[in-house]
Design brief:
With 217 residues, the protein is α/β, with parallel strands linked by helices. The protein has eleven helices and six strands. Strands 2-1-3-4-5-6 form a six-stranded parallel beta sheet, sandwiched between helices. Strand 4, helix 4 and strand 5 form a beta-alpha-beta unit.
Length: 217
């Protein structure tokens, strides 16, 4: 009796990397890449439609990022295993991905054998982290560091932490655009995403939460 086919969805906004990854995964026996997506919304939509066994997810993509895409996929399809494959190894990104429901986290410097092992592991129900990421996790907890805002609000991206800090300091959207050198539309998108992720209705509620966490000082 043949082994069941592992169905994989690849989400990455870099075309060359995405195609190379698809080629690698498709070449494995009993593995099938059922789709490629270049942004977070596309990844969520495709995961809902295709119901793959594994989603290989980049973190920084247009629209919603990989963290939010992971959260949405796992919330509606908990049987889908998300493996993060990214160049970001900061604590905020790692812990946000874990909180969102990712079962694995690898850096893009991983070699092909490590990527294949990770996909097979999460497809089999395991949790797996690359050596560099595992070391960061161990160091984080071993350090006994005080609770920081990236742990209090792990669902936020690094940029959203910056925006929230400025909001907590009483800055307007116009101030944010000038300080962070962003367009007004981008600032509005960040603020809206923050409100959604923090589950607050308005700026005042966000400020209260942020200041309680030590931001805006």
């Amino acid at each position: 009796m043949s082994e069941p086919v592992v169905r994989i969805l690849v989400a990455d906004d870099h075309p060359l990397y995405r195609r190379g990854l698809t080629t690698l995964l498709s070449a494995q026996e009993n593995w099938e890449v059922v789709g490629e997506e270049a942004d977070g919304i596309g990844a969520v939509t495709a995961a809902h439609a295709q119901q793959p066994d594994v989603v290989v997810m980049d973190l920084r993509m247009p629209g919603i990022d990989g963290i939010e895409a992971t959260r949405r996929i796992v919330s509606t399809s908990p049987h889908v295993a998300v493996l993060v494959l990214t160049m970001y190894d900061d604590d905020g990104s790692v812990f946000s991905a874990m909180r969102a429901g990712a079962r694995g986290y690898l850096l893009k410097g991983a070699d092909q054998a490590e990527i294949l092992r990770a996909v097979a592991a999460v497809a089999g129900g395991e949790a797996i982290f690359g050596a560099a990421v595992a070391t960061r996790i161990i160091e984080f907890f071993a350090a006994g560091r005080p609770r920081g805002t990236e742990v209090v609000f792990p669902q936020l991206t690094a940029r959203e932490h910056e925006v929230l800090d400025l909001i907590a300091g009483g800055r307007s959207n116009a101030d944010l655009a000038e300080i962070l050198v962003l367009s007004p539309k981008t600032v509005r998108n960040h603020v809206s995403n923050i409100f959604t992720k923090l589950q607050v209705a308005d700026r005042a509620q966000a400020i209260v939460l942020a200041r309680d966490a030590g931001l805006g000082r």
